[in-house]
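Example record

The entry below shows one chain as it appears in the dataset: sequence first, then structure tokens.
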Amino acid sequence: MEDESLVQEINLHLQRIGKYVKAQDIVDFLDTPEMKKQLNRETTIHLAMAQRWMHQVGYRWTSTPKGQYVDGHECTDIVTYRQDVFLPKLAEIDATMRIWTEDGIEDPNAATTPSLRHTVVWYHDKSIFYANNQ
């Protein structure tokens, strides 16, 4: 690609699209009347040229692995479940949970209900999900 400002415009356009971009996005972008006028062209570029440009600026073809975790924590049904079911249940068992300090010592000031059985909640993040993933 010859013109550095054109490269920057294309990169900005691809960034606006998001993380799933394709060469056809460049073809469509350069096919707009504004870009045709700016480039002084009547026709658009071919898909093969857009693919070469993407390769030149550092884009690489990849496929999404099957079974990949997708974070859906903002979906309406997930938010409703968290607010109406999970958090009230967590508050309900909070009094039977042991509380530990940063040093790993049980907090003597914690307001827990004396109980024969304590509740242990195991929190985890995505690193545990991927722990056995080659």
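Notes for this example: The chain has two domains: 4-56, 76-129. The mean pLDDT is 80.
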